[in-house]
Amino acid sequence: MATLTQKTLDFNREIKLSNDGGSLSSDTGEFLFREFDEKIGFSKTLVQHLELNDSRAYYLHSNENLLRQKIYQ
Questions:
Q1: Residue ranges per structural domain of the chain
Q2: Under a CB-based contact definition with an 8 Å cutoff, are residues 11 and 34 in contact?
Q3: Which ranges in the chain belong to alpha helices (H)?
Q4: DSSP single-letter state for residue 17
Q5: Is the pTM of this model over 0.90?
Q6: Per the database record, which ranges form the Transposase DDE domain (predicted)?
Q7: CA distance 23 to 12
Q8: Are 13 and 44 in contact (CB under 8 A)?
Q9: Rounded Cα gap, residues 63 and 39, in angstroms
Q10: pLDDT in tens, 14-69
Q11: Residue 21: left if φ>0, alpha if ψ -120 to 50, beta else—which one?
Q12: What sign results for the dihedral spanned by CA atoms 60, 63, 65, 66?
């Protein structure tokens, strides 16, 4: 039975994608979006040209990460 070879992601070398039935996650699709985004520089380009008026006093996530989440969803 043929399986996909293991793929290490460039944006996070600790994440490995494979089809061997090991540790499973439903987030794999988002990892592929992130990998593609990093390769073409989409989020970085948006951050350079987009200015958000954000009045949050306390926050955990940067505007870049919030925007990335919205795009991937």
A1: 26-72
A2: yes
A3: 28-40, 42-49, 63-72
A4: E
A5: no
A6: 9-73
A7: 17
A8: no
A9: 20
A10: 777 766 666 666 666 677 788 888 888 888 888 888 777 778 788 788 878 888 88
A11: left
A12: positive
